[in-house]
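Tokens for chain A. Residues wanted.
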């Protein structure tokens, strides 16, 4: 039976390093409606999913020595589902995720966005990073139509994806670029409040700083790709405004749902640091190349959640009762 949804999961450091994500996707109950394509470099390629005791709907795709962006393109050629979900190795679906997502797929939306909560709880730097990166879709939040999807962990109708990337479907844009293109296309984007995921950021300040540096550099390349050289030289002048806009977004989302999501207000201090690093790097990245951007975004994105991180997160949610509370507050489908 042809699956309705294909999940592309990068396993760029191999299945062992990505075990937490693979197991989370393998635990979902979806019948024959879901397939997971894990992109694995040739040197890490195992005998098969059965060697790791994973579900039969998980398949490994040998990407040789390709980079992250090229890996997604290779997997995209093997999509069987009506919709494709671009997953991250550090973002894990909750029980019930597949059923909720498949219900919204049946409603025919162009794009369906998941909702998120932070997986790291003991580090202000990680929580500040979460506010800046995923605060806009942070629980609690009501289901309904939204104006923009996040760059990753979104579900896109396959025919829409092929139409948007018709120029070169063999080389998909990074998720951020794709989200910009989806917004410009006028596609109907729905937020599925019941399809919640835990997003794990790096658990040290040094690693978070490096990730926002690489993210900013890549965004600088993409945002100014068609700007004249003089405008690129002037871009650093806008640095304070860019940093302020990033930070304003984090503050707005904290005020909306931060306390209910269990995030202390002190995390905003970290958000301010990351906003400044992001903006500074974005200005510097305006002089970079597309190839450099691919390398930079890979450094920011490849950070698989470990089994130990998940265990600590599970213990926190069990101790505080947060997960049960979040289930009770889950909004009715729009």
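Reply:
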């Amino acid at each position: 039976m042809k699956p309705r949804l294909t999940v592309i999961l990068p396993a760029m450091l191999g299945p062992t390093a990505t075990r937490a994500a693979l197991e989370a996707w393998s635990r979902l109950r979806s019948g024959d409606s879901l397939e997971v394509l894990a992109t694995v470099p040739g040197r890490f390629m195992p005998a098969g999913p059965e060697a790791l005791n994973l579900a039969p709907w998980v398949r490994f795709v040998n990407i040789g020595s390709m980079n992250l962006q090229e890996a997604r393109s290779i997997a995209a050629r093997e999509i069987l589902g009506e919709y494709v979900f671009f997953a991250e190795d550090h973002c894990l679906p909750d029980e019930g995720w597949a059923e909720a997502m498949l219900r919204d797929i049946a409603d025919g939306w162009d794009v369906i966005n998941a909702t998120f909560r932070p997986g790291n709880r003991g580090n202000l730097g990680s929580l500040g990073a979460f506010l800046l990166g995923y605060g806009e879709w942070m629980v609690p939040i009501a289901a309904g139509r939204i104006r923009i999807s996040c760059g990753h962990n979104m579900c896109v109708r396959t025919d829409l994806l092929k139409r948007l990337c018709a120029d070169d479907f063999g080389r998909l844009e990074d998720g951020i670029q794709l989200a910009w293109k989806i917004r410009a296309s006028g596609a109907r984007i729905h937020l599925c409040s019941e399809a919640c995921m835990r997003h794990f950021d790096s658990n040290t300040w040094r690693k978070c700083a490096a990730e926002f540096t690489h993210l900013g550099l890549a965004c600088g390349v993409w945002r100014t790709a068609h700007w004249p050289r003089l405008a690129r030289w002037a871009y650093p002048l806008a640095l304070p405004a860019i940093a302020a806009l990033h930070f304003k977004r984090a503050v707005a989302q904290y005020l909306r749902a931060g306390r209910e999501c269990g995030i202390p207000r002190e995390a905003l201090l970290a958000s301010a640091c990351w906003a400044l690093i992001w903006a500074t790097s974005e200005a510097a990245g305006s002089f970079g190349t597309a190839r450099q951007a691919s390398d930079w975004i890979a450094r920011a994105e490849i950070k698989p959640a470990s089994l130990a991180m998940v265990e600590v997160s599970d213990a926190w949610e069990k101790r505080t009762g947060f997960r049960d509370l979040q289930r009770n507050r889950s909004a009715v489908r729009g």
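The mean pLDDT is 89. The first strand starts at residue 5 and ends at 10.
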